[in-house]
Specification:
Elements: H1 3-10, H2 14-23, E1 30-31, E2 37-38, H3 41-54, H4 60-68, H5 74-104, H6 110-123, H7 128-140, H8 146-155, H9 159-170, H10 177-183, H11 189-200, H12 205-214, H13 220-232, H14 239-248, H15 252-263, H16 266-283, H17 287-296, H18 303-312, H19 318-333
Helix pairs in contact: 3-4, 6-7, 7-9, 8-9, 10-11, 11-13, 12-13, 13-14, 13-15, 14-15, 14-17, 15-16, 16-17, 16-18, 17-19, 18-19
Length: 334
């Protein structure tokens, strides 16, 4: 079979077939009387073998070695190809993400594109100061794609930079909530906690709904962050978790402050006092926890809290009784 026919049947150009010949990869076994290359069926089979190996990413040199070296073992080479392919996919994925974010910024011209690229590079900088400046400038100068801000805040370890990123993200309103919601279920605990902290700084009903949902999160730290944020927003769903925090001495002062904020609503004050009393009576036997619960009653107004403190002043646990008596004295002096 002449070279033109081989090219048509194999899909390999005549020029490439000549190149294979010059490299010694496929040398036609025959020549016509006019000196034209003539390929046998075995030559054509070898061409298809070459193309198959090239489709795996092998160089022509590696293809020749694979076909001609009897001692060649493919395992090491295949492992190398897997590593190189993964690296290439990662690089292409990163490029696709960058392009998508630039597109989301809706640039009006190439100057906008360049500014967005510079901002994205700054958000990924190794310098904490540069990352912080990028977060702040994303609000005042070059708007950053929300997806980029969310990725940055979920991965940020520097507290100052994280604070700037949360503030910048909050300026975008609800735009980043869906991505942050996914962060609440991330496999890495720190990512889950950064997600709930970021949601807590975003105002509005949608963020509040997400925080309510976070009260049932499997991560206790996420539940606690959510409860503190909800308490500040006046959401009573947070009360059980806040009381748990007081008992467990986990940010108990902040939890008591949140209960105090909720109790500023007279209609809720007695309900909160009743819950604290129930926990004192049935929820724990540890003296220190009962003391913290009694202390939490100090800033809960209303008759239910006053009655509870009066009863606790005679509690059989002397530390609890003294705490309650002292709080009653302070309340009476107001």
């Amino acid at each position: 079979m002449l070279i033109g026919e081989v090219a048509r049947r194999s899909g390999v150009s005549a020029r490439m077939l000549r190149h294979y010949d010059s490299l010694g990869l496929v040398r036609p076994t025959g020549r016509t009387g006019s000196g034209y290359r003539e390929y046998s069926n075995e030559d054509i089979r070898r061409i298809f073998h070459i193309e198959s190996l090239r489709s795996l990413g092998l160089s022509l040199r590696e293809v020749g070695r694979a076909l001609d070296d009897p001692g060649f073992t493919p395992a090491t080479l295949v492992d190398d190809l897997i590593r190189h392919t993964r690296a290439r996919i990662a690089a292409e994925t990163e490029l696709l993400t960058r392009l998508r974010r630039i597109g989301a910024a809706e640039p009006a011209g190439w100057e906008d594109v360049l500014q967005t690229v510079a901002l994205l590079q700054a958000l990924g900088s190794e310098s904490a100061g540069r990352r912080q400046r990028a977060a702040l400038s994303s609000v005042s100068e070059v708007p950053a794609p929300v997806e980029a801000l969310v990725e940055a805040v979920l991965n940020e370890t520097d507290p100052n930079v994280a604070g700037a990123l949360r503030w910048a993200l909050a300026q975008s309103g609800d735009a980043g909530l869906a991505l942050l919601a996914a962060g609440l279920d991330a496999p890495v605990a720190e990512v889950r906690r950064r997600a709930v902290q970021s949601i807590a700084e975003i105002p509005g009903d949608a963020a509040t709904a997400l925080l309510r949902h976070a009260l049932a999160n499997s991560d206790v730290v996420v539940r606690r962050y959510a409860a503190l944020a909800l308490g500040a927003r006046g959401v009573t769903d947070a009360v059980p978790t806040l009381i748990d925090m007081i008992v467990e001495e986990a940010n108990d002062v902040d939890a008591a402050d949140a209960l105090s904020v909720l109790a500023s609503d007279a209609a809720l004050a007695d309900q909160i006092a009743t819950r604290l009393v129930d926990r004192l009576a049935h929820g724990t036997a540890e003296s220190s926890a009962r003391q913290r619960l009694a202390q939490a009653l100090a800033d809960i107004p209303g008759p239910a809290a006053s009655r509870a403190l009066a009863e606790l002043s005679a509690d059989e646990d002397r530390a609890v009784a003294l705490t309650a008596a002292y709080i009653r004295k302070l309340r009476d002096a107001r």
